[in-house]
Each structure stands twice: as structure tokens, then as C-alpha cells.
Amino acid sequence: MEKKEERTELEKLGEFGLIEHLTKGFSLTNNSTALGIGDDAALIDAGDHYQVVSTDVLVEGIHFDMSYFPLKHLGYKAVAVNVSDIAAMNATPEQVLISLAISNRFSVQALETFYAGVQQACADFKLDLVGGDTSSSAGGLFISVTAIGKVAKDKVSKRGGAKGKDILCATGDLGAAYMGLQVLAREKQVFMANPNMQPQLDKYEYLVGRQLKPTARMDIIYELDELGVVPTSMIDISDGLASELLHLSKQSGLGLRIFEDKLPIDNQTYETAVEFGLDPITCVLNGGEDYELLFTITQNDFEKLEKHRDIHFIGYMDETDKEAGLVTKNESWIPLKAQGWNHFGKEGNV
Ligand code: ADP
Ligand code: MG
């Protein structure tokens, strides 16, 4: 009888499980590799500092929908999301490489518009575009960006450096980019049902902007440096707060608790979530693509950041308990679950 070939579905492992499964047989052999897989960026020993390298891929139909994503914004976002990973190491980005696979649906003019966005991001983040690769694609647009930066060895922040009682900080507000996506998807449905209908986006301008025009929080990295604060651990919030908190907890080997009434949410996010029949706190915890920073600081550094307009103290690391959870307004405990952007997981997006 013919032997049946074994087949495991991707969704059985999920995105993080798959990465772990495929890379577990690799070991680091070069002395210059200071940190490999498992953080926002890899660290390469460059003598007196680390070189920091990170790469991300954006796929049409998965990460963006051409029917509502202006190409200029897409070029900007492709760079910004990589800069965000460099920022998450407390590093400064310096170079970027961009690879494209392009279907013949796209014209030269369309790609010029995409590159205008790339150029704007290079100017905003003081980056040099130093290379890439270009190919045709059988269908759709694929964008791969690699960013390179640097950080002093004693200033680097990894995911696993938090200590018990360290304070958890989140920048900006959360859940808005996810609600922006919901608004865009709804308007697209309305438009497809009746092409004469104009999209109603004015009321949701902030949310849509957060989805289409994300920025990387390099401003926070520079401010932390000026204030003399080195986060004990850090990650950027790309997959949703809950997922990122679980990474910090797991890699620091500590539990943590966050407080519902401390979570930063914009009024427009709150009201729109309610309008869509969604729980606003679920949007804050599991909505993706905020590209804010989540980090921990020692209690001693609290005073230096206490008055910062855009840093929110959402909880603390807990060495007495390995669990990560949310304390609700009525004091009940909800263990955190990662729903995030687990591309292959059964639960999918929020
Ligand atoms: P982020 O959300 O910060 O971009 P990811 O969750 O994509 O991080 O990746 C987590 C870690 O796994 C990173 O160190 C990344 O470089 C690594 N990684 C992701 N995909 C692969 C892959 N296909 N092969 C090797 N390493 C990977
Ligand atoms: Mg990241």
C-alpha cells in the first residue's frame, strides 16, 4: 500500500508556533550575532555599539486592500512599521532596503506615488534608502522592508529584561487603527452594494488616519534618552496589546497585571466600538497595528516620566505570580489571551 504523506495544517501551529517550529534547529555560530530570532530586531555586535536589523513583509489582500489604501500612505506605512521595530530596541534607524513584487496591474505612476510615501518616511525618520530588489508577481503587490539601525550596548531594550515590580508603560492610545479598519471595511461593503454612495469617513477621521497613516514613535525614543531612562524591556504594539504583554511576560519570566481603568483609549475609538457592537476594551487589547510602544521602567525612573503627556502607566510586572492578566474596574481578574494578528491561527483576527 502507498504510504500516506504526513500533512500538518498551518493553523495548527499559528504564526508564532510556526516560526518556533521552523527555526528551532538553527543555532548561532558567529560571535558577531549578539541576539537572534525572538525579539523585535536582531542585534549584531559592531564593536562599540550594536547594529540592529529588522524585516517585515506586507501582502496585498492580507495587510492592505488597494481599494481603500492610498499608495502614498502604503509606502509610508511600509517603512514606518519597520522603524517601529527598530524603536522597540531603543535604537535609532539609519538605513532601509525595499523589495517589491509587482503585478502588471500597477503603472509606473502608481509606483512613483508609492515611492513618494517611502521618501516622506525616509525624510521624517532620517533614513537612507540603500537597496532592495524588484520582481514581477503573478498577482498582487508584495512589499518587504528591512531596516537597519544602531544602539549603544548599554542602552538596548529587549523583550525579556523586565524585573519584578517594574512599571508597565504604553504610549499613545490603543485600538484606533483596528477600529479604523472596521470603518473602512464597512464603507467598502456599502460602496460595493451601491457604487453611487459616497463613503462617510469624516466622523471617523482620527481612526481612519491611525489605520492608513501609522507612525513609529521615534519621538518617544529620543525623549527617553534625553530624560536618561532606559526601558528595562520593550516591544512595539503591532499585534495588539495583549499579545505583546504576553511576549514581555514570557520572555522576562514574570507575571504581570494591567488595570482596565488605566488603558489609554481615544473617545472616537470608544464610541465607534460601541456603535459597531464591539467591546472597547477588547479593541484596546486585541486590535492590531497601533505601532505604539509598550515598555517597562524601574520604579526609580517613574518620577522622570510621571508628567509625560503621552506615556500611560498601565500596570506592573509581578514576580509573585507567573500569570498575565487584566484587573477590571470591578476588581475581577481576566487572564490575558493573545488574539492579535495570528495569521494562521484558527481564531484569526479579533
Ligand atoms: P514583529 O511583530 O515585531 O515584527 P514577529 O512576530 O514578526 O515580530 O517575529 C518574531 C521573531 O521571529 C523576530 O525575531 C523575527 O525576525 C523572527 N521571524 C519571523 N518570521 C521568521 C521566519 N520566517 N524565519 C526566521 N525568523 C523569523
Ligand atoms: Mg515588533
What's the arrangement of secondary structure elements?
Elements: H1 10-23, E1 33-35, E2 42-45, E3 49-59, H2 71-87, E4 92-102, H3 108-124, E5 128-136, E6 142-152, E7 167-171, H4 176-193, H5 205-212, H6 218-227, E8 233-237, H7 241-252, E9 255-259, H8 267-275, H9 280-286, E10 292-297, H10 302-305, E11 311-318, E12 324-327, E13 333-335
Parallel strand pairs: 4-5, 9-12
Antiparallel strand pairs: 1-2, 2-3, 3-6, 4-6, 7-10, 7-11, 8-10, 9-11, 12-13
Helix pairs in contact: 2-3, 4-5
Bound molecules: adenosine-5'-diphosphate and magnesium ion.
Residues 40, 85, 88, 235-236, 238 line the site of magnesium ion.
Please, could you describe this protein's structure?
- This protein is α+β, with helices and mostly antiparallel strands.
- It has 2 domains: 113 residues, 2-Layer Sandwich (60s Ribosomal Protein L30, Chain: A), CATH 3.30.1330.10; 169 residues, PurM-like C-terminal domain (Phosphoribosyl-aminoimidazole Synthetase, Chain A, domain 2), CATH 3.90.650.
- The strands form 2 sheets. It has a 7-stranded mixed sheet, with helices on both faces. The chain has a 6-stranded mixed sheet with strand order 1-2-3-6-4-5, with helices on one face.
- The longest helix has 18 residues.
